[in-house]
């Protein structure tokens, strides 16, 4: 009796004292959850980007690091500002003067665009099939799509050399079955690059497509058929438009890394293919021209930001429509 | 026996032996794996009929509609539409439109385009489509929502779009799966009458699924009562209510009092039933129940009179005690425990504001009814 009375007497005041604190704590945790990813971005994206941007404004030098000026405070504040004055946009003007860079950018974008379309064409039927498969086997199918990630990317691309080279598996098979009489030259061509990119990036296309197709209510297709729409037409009028968010996400996930792709063109595309990732690598490691390669990287980033912004805008618009 | 009739007195093709059935389910069975959703079911629906499928959840109503629309093929039996076997005809070639239980509105299209979808599919000229869409929007009172997307509508509004979309093509047969489930009572009643009106005006055949018996009663020419994939009774609403074919139907539609018993004596005009608990009941319409047969006497609560003294002229009068009273405004429902233990439900219209013979809890009371007030059920 006295216990209960005491509890009744203390509990409201304890509540009153505790709940604002608790609320403050909750608010802080809530903030933290937002702040941590931003700190992450700041440290691992923004700061390195500023360093790269600064290097792109420097000049090459035979030194370590191989550029000047190296910003420091050894000369005090005024010395620091003197160093800043040495920065210039020469490297960027250089990029515009040598057609090599322009061509490399254009080729990269074109190759990435074609590969993206090819990946979409290959990935869509896979994702569609998965989303229509019996619910019990879908997790297995999903697993199979992700399975290649368990092996090193590099090894998988090397494996393609073994398949595509003139005396490789593919040619042996085609020759043996009599489909061709001369081995096909695929390795070290753009075709090999397309094959490599489509193969490597397929999961990035399939997963977002699958997730948007799987959500779709099948009764919509039934309703379309019921209203006189044959299956093919129902696909283009209902299924495809409703999977567009997945199509856009998948295309960007393939296009963006494909533009800067280095390993695939280097290993499968041979020496004469001109992609910006390879150019960057050459500038950096072969020519040891850090400032120019940094400028190449900055331009590449700007080039990629455009599709990302477009994507975000499209998403924001979709959100506004409440989709 | 007086006729129980139909709502539309001039429309009763099911009584006409020469009438040609429009939709025919012939011994249709539908199995999902081992589960039998529809079991050897036969049904006949006539042209221009407003036909309701009534049954508890999971009894196979939607499955029946889906077979008619072409989304499921019967495991056995056949479905005929206007004499043509529908087997193998895909949904998009059937002159049948369906309003889905889940509405299935196209989320990426405006209300307008949802309604126009089927019309465009038919290649109807643009101005005609616009006119038809406007007409449909007016019908479902959604004129000002034409440009909205489905997700910007309330549940009831979505349901009306679904309705408009399915009616827009003026199909020969319109299938409606729980068309009014999400509407509030008032709008629901309004829409019921609008549906009936529409069906009359356009001369369409409607098959509507519902588990709301009042709705089925209001709208339908005939009702099929289903249980576990089988037809229990097909009849007009008054027949279903006043002459249920079985205990199940009597129970399923409306409230009913049931007296288990035996046929004690049959004469030319009347039959005496001896209740299992001792009550003696005299009825006129005992059907084909033979003397000695185990039967159930079913009587609706509103056909039972309740009074504090034994009515002088009543053929059937049983004594008991008032157990419970529910005042519902328009009527009062009494639960009376008879002296033999049987509970009886009697309802009285509150025609006057004050009752002369007020009854209260635990009062002694008499329940009485005429000899033609109930039915004898052998099944
Ligand atoms: N595709 C299917 N696979 C397996 N079982 C199914 C399938 N479709 C329906 N069923 C089963 O068949 C039975 C009848 O289903 P149906 O949808 O026709 O019921 P219903 O009468 O429309 O019920 P409700 O009033 O709840 O809509 C249910 O028991 C259901 O579980
Ligand atoms: Mg249903």
Automatic annotation (TrEMBL), chain A:
Localisation: Cell membrane
Cross-referenced InterPro entries: MetI-like (IPR000515), MetI-like_sf (IPR035906)
Biological process per Gene Ontology, one example term: transmembrane transport
Highest rank taxon of the organism: Bacteria
Protein family (similarity comment): Belongs to the binding-protein-dependent transport system permease family. CysTW subfamily.
Ranges annotated as spanning the membrane: 32-53, 101-128, 140-164, 184-210, 242-264, 290-311
Principal subcellular localisation of the protein: membrane
PANTHER family per record: INNER MEMBRANE ABC TRANSPORTER PERMEASE PROTEIN YDCU-RELATED-RELATED, PUTRESCINE TRANSPORT SYSTEM PERMEASE PROTEIN POTH
One Pfam match: BPD_transp_1
SUPFAM superfamilies attached to this UniProt entry: MetI-like
Membrane topology label: Multi-pass membrane protein
Tagged with keyword Membrane: yes
Keyword tags: Cell membrane, Membrane, Transmembrane, Transmembrane helix, Transport
Protein name stated in the entry: ABC transporter permease subunit
Domain ABC transmembrane type-1 per the UniProt entry, residue ranges: 105-311
GO CC annotations on file: plasma membrane
KW Disulfide bond (keyword) present: no
Record organism: Mesorhizobium waimense
UniProtKB/TrEMBL annotation, chain B:
The protein's name in its UniProt record: Spermidine/putrescine import ATP-binding protein PotA
Role description: Part of the ABC transporter complex PotABCD involved in spermidine/putrescine import. Responsible for energy coupling to the transport system.
Family matches, as Pfam families: ABC_tran, TOBE_2
NCBIfam families assigned to the protein according to its UniProt record, in alphabetical order: potA
One cellular component (GO) term of this entry: ATP-binding cassette (ABC) transporter complex
InterPro entries in the cross-refs: AAA+_ATPase, ABC_SmlMolc_Importer, ABC_transporter-like_ATP-bd, ABC_transporter-like_CS, Mo/tungstate-bd_C_term_dom, P-loop_NTPase, PotA-like, Transp-assoc_OB_typ2
Similarity comment: Belongs to the ABC transporter superfamily. Spermidine/putrescine importer (TC 3.A.1.11.1) family.
GO biological process: putrescine transport
Keywords: ATP-binding, Cell inner membrane, Cell membrane, Membrane, Nucleotide-binding, Translocase, Transport
Any GO MF annotation of the entry: ABC-type polyamine transporter activity
UniProt-listed Enzyme Commission number(s): 7.6.2.11
PANTHER family (UniProt xref): PUTRESCINE TRANSPORT ATP-BINDING PROTEIN POTG, SPERMIDINE/PUTRESCINE IMPORT ATP-BINDING PROTEIN POTA
Species name: Mesorhizobium waimense
EC top class, as a word: translocase
Assembly information from the UniProt record: The complex is composed of two ATP-binding proteins (PotA), two transmembrane proteins (PotB and PotC) and a solute-binding protein (PotD).
Domain ABC transporter: 23-253
Reaction(s) catalysed by this chain's protein: ATP + H2O + polyamine-[polyamine-binding protein]Side 1 = ADP + phosphate + polyamineSide 2 + [polyamine-binding protein]Side 1
């Amino acid at each position: 009796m006295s216990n209960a009375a005491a509890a009744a007497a203390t509990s409201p005041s304890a509540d009153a004292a505790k709940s604002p604190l608790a609320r403050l704590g909750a608010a802080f945790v809530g903030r933290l959850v937002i702040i941590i990813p931003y700190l992450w971005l700041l440290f691992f994206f923004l700061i390195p980007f500023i360093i790269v941007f600064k290097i792109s404004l420097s000049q090459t030098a035979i030194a370590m690091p191989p550029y000047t000026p190296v910003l420091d405070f050894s000369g005090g504040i005024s010395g620091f500002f003197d160093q800043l004055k040495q920065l210039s946009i020469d490297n960027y003007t250089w990029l515009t003067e040598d057609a090599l860079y322009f061509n490399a950018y254009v080729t990269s974008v074109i190759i990435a665009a074609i590969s993206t379309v090819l990946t979409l064409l290959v990935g869509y039927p896979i994702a569609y099939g998965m989303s229509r498969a019996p619910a019990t086997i879908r997790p297995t199918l999903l697993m199979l799509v992700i399975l290649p990630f368990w092996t090193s990317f590099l090894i998988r691309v090397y494996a393609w050399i073994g398949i595509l080279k003139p005396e490789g598996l593919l040619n042996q098979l085609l020759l043996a079955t009599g489909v061709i009489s001369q081995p096909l030259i695929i390795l070290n061509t753009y075709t090999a690059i397309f094959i490599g990119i489509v193969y490597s990036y397929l999961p990035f296309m399939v997963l977002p497509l699958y997730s948007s197709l799987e959500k779709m209510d099948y009764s919509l297709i039934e309703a379309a058929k019921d209203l006189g729409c044959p299956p093919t037409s129902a696909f283009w009028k209902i299924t495809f438009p409703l999977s567009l968010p997945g199509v856009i996400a998948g295309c960007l996930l393939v296009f963006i890394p494909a533009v800067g792709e280095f390993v695939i063109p280097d290993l499968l595309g041979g020496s004469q293919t001109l992609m910006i990732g390879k150019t960057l690598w050459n500038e950096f490691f072969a020519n040891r021209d850090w400032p120019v390669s940094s400028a190449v990287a900055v331009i590449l980033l700007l080039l990629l930001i455009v599709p990302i912004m477009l994507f975000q805008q499209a998403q924001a618009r979709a959100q506004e429509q409440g989709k | 026996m007086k006729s129980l009739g139909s709502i539309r007195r001039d429309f009763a093709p099911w009584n006409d032996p020469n009438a040609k059935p429009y939709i025919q389910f012939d011994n249709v069975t539908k199995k999902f794996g081992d589960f039998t959703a529809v079991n050897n079911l036969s049904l006949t629906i006539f042209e221009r009929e407003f036909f309701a499928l009534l049954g508890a959840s999971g009894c196979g109503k939607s499955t029946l509609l889906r077979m008619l629309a072409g989304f499921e093929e019967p495991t056995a039996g056949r479905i005929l539409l206007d004499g043509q076997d529908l087997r193998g005809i895909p949904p998009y070639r059937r002159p049948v439109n369906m309003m889905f239980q889940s509405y299935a509105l196209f989320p990426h299209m405006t209300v307008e385009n949802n309604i126009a979808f089927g019309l465009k599919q038919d290649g109807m000229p643009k101005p005609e489509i616009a006119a038809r869409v406007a007409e449909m929007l007016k019908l479902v009172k959604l004129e000002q929502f034409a440009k909205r997307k489905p997700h910007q509508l309330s549940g009831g509004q979505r349901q009306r779009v679904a309705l408009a979309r399915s009616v827009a093509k003026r199909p020969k047969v319109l299938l409606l799966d729980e068309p009014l489930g999400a509407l509030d009572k008032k709008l629901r009643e309004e829409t019921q009458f609008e549906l009936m009106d529409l069906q009359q005006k356009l001369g369409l055949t409607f098959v509507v699924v519902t588990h709301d018996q009042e709705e089925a009663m209001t709208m339908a020419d005939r009702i099929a009562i289903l249980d576990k994939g089988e037809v229990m009774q097909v009849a007009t609403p008054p027949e279903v209510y006043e002459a249920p074919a079985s205990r199940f139907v009597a129970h399923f539609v409306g409230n009913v009092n049931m007296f288990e018993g035996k046929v004690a004596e049959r004469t030319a005009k009347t039959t005496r039933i001896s209740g299992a608990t001792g009550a003696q009941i005299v009825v006129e319409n005992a059907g084909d129940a033979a003397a000695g047969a185990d039967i159930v006497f079913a009587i609706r609560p509103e056909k039972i009179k309740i009074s504090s003294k034994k009515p002088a002229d009543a053929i059937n009068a049983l004594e008991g005690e008032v157990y419970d009273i529910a005042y519902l405004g328009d009527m009062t429902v009494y639960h009376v425990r008879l002296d033999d233990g049987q509970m009886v439900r009697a309802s009285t219209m509150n025609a006057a504001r004050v009752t002369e013979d007020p009854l209260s809890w635990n009062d002694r009371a008499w329940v009485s009814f005429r000899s033609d007030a109930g039915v004898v059920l052998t099944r």
